[in-house]
Write a structure and sequence with these properties.
Blueprint (H helix, E strand, L loop, with lengths): L2 H32 L22 E8 L2 E8 L12 E7 L6 E8 L13 E10 L4 E9 L9 E7 L7 E6 L27 H9 L9 E5 L5 E7 L4 E7 L6 E8 L6 E8 L2 E7 L9 E6 L7 E4 L2 E2 L10 E7 L7 E7 L9 E10 L2 E5 L12
Parallel strand pairs: 17-21
Antiparallel strand pairs: 1-2, 2-3, 3-4, 5-6, 6-7, 7-8, 9-10, 10-11, 11-12, 13-14, 14-15, 15-16, 18-19, 19-20, 20-21
Bound molecules: (2R,3S,4R,5S)-2-(hydroxymethyl)piperidine-3,4,5-triol.
InterPro entries: Glyco_hydro_43, Glyco_hydro_beta-prop_sf
Keywords: Glycosidase, Hydrolase, Signal
Organism: Mucilaginibacter robiniae
């Protein structure tokens, strides 16, 4: 028996099989990169145009001329990814399923004295377009390097192009020196009197009047009349503030209202449907999920009515493992709003998943139910 021949023959066979398997694998990778997505599969890996899981956590959307832009926190692997090591990532899409990587829209700074120094906490970026100045305006929640969640500032960056690059402008606590406004008819004894704060959250509010209100989890909403509002967790998260932005969207006017004061609410996402304002938020349990809550109001200034949890079915008591970040109106479809949530993975931040689910209107009420997969045909035209 010629052992050499058998040995080499076997080697050739193994090499051949390996080559075939590599080729098949390479084919698979190429195909999956190129494959067009036609549905949403909440909670699964969501590949971008390069086949890489989308990296835009705590995100928000901007729609312009047939294109959606998705801005979110770029996370890195491990626990370090809970801090901003890279910046804000931007993606674009025409169909909401397939996303093109547009790169880093706002980069953190290597200068450790910068407000947005690498390693700071930069969360929930939201971009709006200002028609008057023709600028793209990005607001975000900023925590200064090495200070945990103490600074609680609103950060601002601006660009001439949707995809950036954005230039950092300033960060601060909004509405220093101002008192809130109230829905008409609010009795005087329900208004904050800083000579005599009635409870914990009013105490935090009054403490922060001179230096400005804390601004953590946030969103920006542009109304039909072009007025923009910044909504954020203030008073150690005990209250949501809804605050008017100036005409170029680059600062606060001092006009604001306090919503659901005295209850800790995070992750606000606001939208308008048939003239009613809707607000979805969460409780305050760090990265762990908790029940969502929703509110509605006839005016942005309230009165805001609390309605409890909009989620229904299995997993509803923990928002299906996620936390709200944005509600996206689908352009060109009636009554079509997508609830966008993050399923955080703080031990390996980059692996965080996206839960997008359709909002169902039941009269003026809303409901969110879990779906393993769905597409835009879930909405009527
Ligand atoms: C919950 C917030 O919604 C997130 O944006 C983030 O700030 C985490 N808390 C940090 O624990």
């Amino acid at each position: 028996m010629n052992f050499n021949k058998i040995f080499f023959g076997t080697k050739l066979l193994v090499a051949g099989l390996l080559a075939i398997s590599f080729a098949a694998h390479a084919q698979e990778t190429v195909t999956s990169k190129a494959a067009k997505l036609t549905q949403f599969t909440p909670g699964t890996i969501w590949p971008d145009n390069k086949g890489v899981h989308i990296n835009a956590h705590g995100g928000g959307m901007l729609y312009q001329k047939g294109t959606y832009y998705w801005f979110g926190e770029h996370k890195i692997a491990g626990g370090a990814g809970n801090r901003a090591m890279v910046g804000v990532h931007c993606y674009s899409s025409k169909d909401l399923y397939n996303w093109k990587d547009e790169g880093i829209a706002l980069a953190v700074s290597p200068d450790t004295t910068s407000d947005i120094a690498k390693g700071c906490i930069l969360e929930r970026p939201k971009v709006v377009y200002n028609k008057k100045t023709k600028k793209y305006v990005m607001w975000f929640h900023l925590e200064l390097l090495g200070q945990g969640y103490k600074a609680a500032r609103a950060g601002l960056a601006i660009s001439d192009k949707a995809t950036g690059p954005y230039t950092f402008v300033k960060s601060y606590r909004p509405n220093a020196g101002f008192m809130p406004i109230y829905p008409p008819g609010t009795p005087d004894n329900e208004k904050v009197d800083c000579a005599n704060p009635k409870n914990k959250s009013e105490g935090f509010f009054c403490r922060d009047v001179p230096g400005g209100q804390m601004a953590r989890d946030m969103n920006v909403f542009v109304d039909d009349d072009g007025k923009a509002y910044h909504i954020f967790s203030a008073e150690e998260n005990f209250t949501l503030d809804i605050a008017e932005l100036n005409d170029d969207y680059t600062g606060h006017t001092g006009k604001f209202t306090r919503v659901y004061a005295g209850h800790q609410t995070e992750a606000p996402a606001i939208f308008k449907h048939n003239g009613t304002y809707y607000l979805i938020g969460s409780g305050t349990t760090g990265w762990a999920p908790n029940p969502a809550r929703w509110f509605s109001a006839p005016s942005i200034w309230g009165p805001w009515t609390y309605h409890g949890n909009p989620c229904v079915g299995t997993g509803s008591e923990i928002t299906f493992g996620g936390q709200s970040t944005y509600v996206l109106p689908v352009v060109g479809k009636k009554d079509a709003f997508i609830f966008m949530a993050d399923k955080w993975t703080p031990k390996d931040a980059i692996d965080g998943r996206y839960l997008w689910l359709p909002i169902v209107f039941k009269g003026n009420d809303i409901e969110i139910d879990w779906l393993d997969k769905w597409d835009l045909s879930a909405f009527k035209k």
